[in-house]
């Protein structure tokens, strides 16, 4: 149930940004979420609706953009999709090097943008 | 007229907590206090491991140590630590599944003027939520006990991805758990975390504890240098 803390932070960032931009109503909140972030999407959405009540973000739609685990091969620099439970994906498809890479995406968790309007 | 527009935000959702954590980490470093976050599921053996670890550290040097015991309820663990003569503070989260900086700072303040060389946070027993929240510690480790099974690494990848070391506990149970595939665990654990240090231990028999204590002491030395 760590979603509560996360959503509380989302609502506070969204209201702060919307107010700074002089927006009266937020219609959409775009969130970029790495595959490595364990979030219950339905719970996230309903908590947002609950915590955003009475703010400029009340009723806004939450749009989650998921980013897969991507790694960069240390040997050849090729970037590829890693699936932790699938052994076949632990080897670079370009040069064949086994399990020698850096994680480049999959742990993201940020608000990319919001859609807002001045009027109600 | 509809004046709908896009406001670029690009702000990290956990930034507020992360900022406080960085500041806290820096302040403790200046005081010479090395903080270690210990995570793992309920029953992984965190308290028993910690008691053994402190004993092994004490053998190496006369260190000042303290423990922040985080639990949803009760002071059962804090009392065990106090019984061993180590100062401890109980942090009851009352149902919250992880520790955040606000709680951490309050718990630390409860020690008053006490100074430590090592301060341990026994995090909430949970393999999911604590992974996301920086607790202001210098290093994070997780425990996985042999009775839990090696395949937890497949089920909770983020936790294995964020820690500096994986401690396999209760290895004295290995003869009773033939299905425990140590090599598969090590291979999978390093899939998202290639630099992960792995130790196989038993607090009861002492196996591997000397090595973990040496690792912890070395990390403090690196922090100070």
CATH topology of the largest domain in chain A: hypothetical protein PF0899 fold
Number of strands of chain B: 8
Helix proportion of chain A: 10-25%
How are the strands of the biggest sheet of chain A laid out side by side?
2-1-6
**CATH architecture classification of the largest domain in chain A:** 2-Layer Sandwich
Written description of the protein model:
The complex is a heterodimer of chains A (120) and B (225). Chain A has two helices and six strands, in the order H-E-H-E-E-E-E-E. A three-stranded mixed beta sheet of chain A has the order 2-1-6, with helices on one face. A three-stranded antiparallel beta sheet of chain A has the order 4-3-5, with no helix packed on it. In chain A, 24% of the residues lie in helices and 32% in strands. The longest helix of chain A is centred in the N-terminal third of the chain and has 18 residues, at 3-20. Chain A has two domains: 3-68 and 106-117, 2-Layer Sandwich (hypothetical protein PF0899 fold); 70-102, no CATH class. Chain B is an alpha/beta fold and 225 residues long. Chain B has one domain (15-224): P-loop containing nucleotide triphosphate hydrolases (Rossmann fold, 3-Layer(aba) Sandwich), CATH 3.40.50. In chain B, 37% of the residues lie in helices and 23% in strands. Chain B is built from eight helices and eight strands. Chain B has helices at 15-31, 46-60, 76-83, 101-109, 152-155, 157-162, 182-189, 209-224, and strands spanning 5-12, 34-40, 65-71, 88-92, 118-125, 139-145, 165-169, 197-200. In chain B, helix 7 links the parallel strand 7 (165-169) and strand 8. In chain B, helix 2 crosses helix 8. Chain B starts with a strand and ends with a helix. The mean pLDDT of chain B is 94. At the A-B interface, helix 1, strand 5 and strand 6 of A face strand 1 and helix 6 of B.
């Amino acid at each position: 149930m760590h979603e509560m803390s996360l959503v509380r932070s989302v609502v506070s960032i969204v209201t702060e940004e919307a107010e700074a931009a002089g927006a009266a109503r937020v219609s959409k909140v775009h969130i970029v979420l790495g595959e490595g972030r364990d979030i219950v999407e339905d719970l996230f959405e309903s908590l947002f609706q609950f915590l955003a009540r009475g703010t400029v973000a009340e009723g806004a739609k939450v749009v989650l953009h998921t980013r897969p685990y991507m790694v960069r091969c240390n040997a050849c620099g090729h970037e590829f999709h890693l699936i932790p439970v699938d052994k076949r994906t632990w080897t670079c498809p370009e040069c064949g090097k086994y399990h020698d890479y850096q994680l480049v995406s999959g742990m993201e968790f940020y608000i990319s943008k919001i859609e807002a309007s001045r009027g109600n | 007229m509809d004046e709908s527009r896009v406001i670029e935000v690009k702000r990290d959702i956990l930034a507020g907590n992360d900022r406080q954590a960085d500041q806290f980490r820096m302040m403790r470093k200046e005081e010479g206090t090395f903080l270690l976050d210990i995570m793992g599921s309920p029953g992984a053996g965190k308290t028993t491991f910690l008691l053994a670890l402190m004993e092994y550290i004490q053998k190496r040097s006369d260190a000042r140590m303290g423990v922040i015991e985080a639990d949803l309820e009760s002071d059962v663990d804090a009392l065990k630590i106090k019984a061993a003569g180590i100062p401890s503070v109980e942090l009851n989260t009352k149902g919250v599944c992880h520790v955040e900086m606000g709680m951490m700072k309050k718990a630390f303040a409860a020690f008053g003027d006490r100074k430590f060389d090592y301060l341990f946070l026994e995090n909430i027993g949970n393999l999911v939520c604590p992974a996301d929240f920086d607790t202001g510690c210098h290093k994070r480790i997780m425990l996985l006990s042999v009775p839990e099974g090696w395949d937890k690494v497949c089920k909770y990848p983020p936790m294995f991805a964020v820690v500096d070391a994986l401690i396999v506990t209760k290895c004295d149970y290995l003869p009773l758990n033939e299905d425990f595939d140590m090599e598969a665990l090590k291979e999978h654990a390093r899939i998202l975390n290639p630099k992960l240090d792995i130790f196989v231990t038993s607090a009861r028999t002492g196996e591997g504890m000397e090595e973990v204590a040496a690792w912890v002491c070395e990390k403090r030395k690196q922090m100070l240098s």
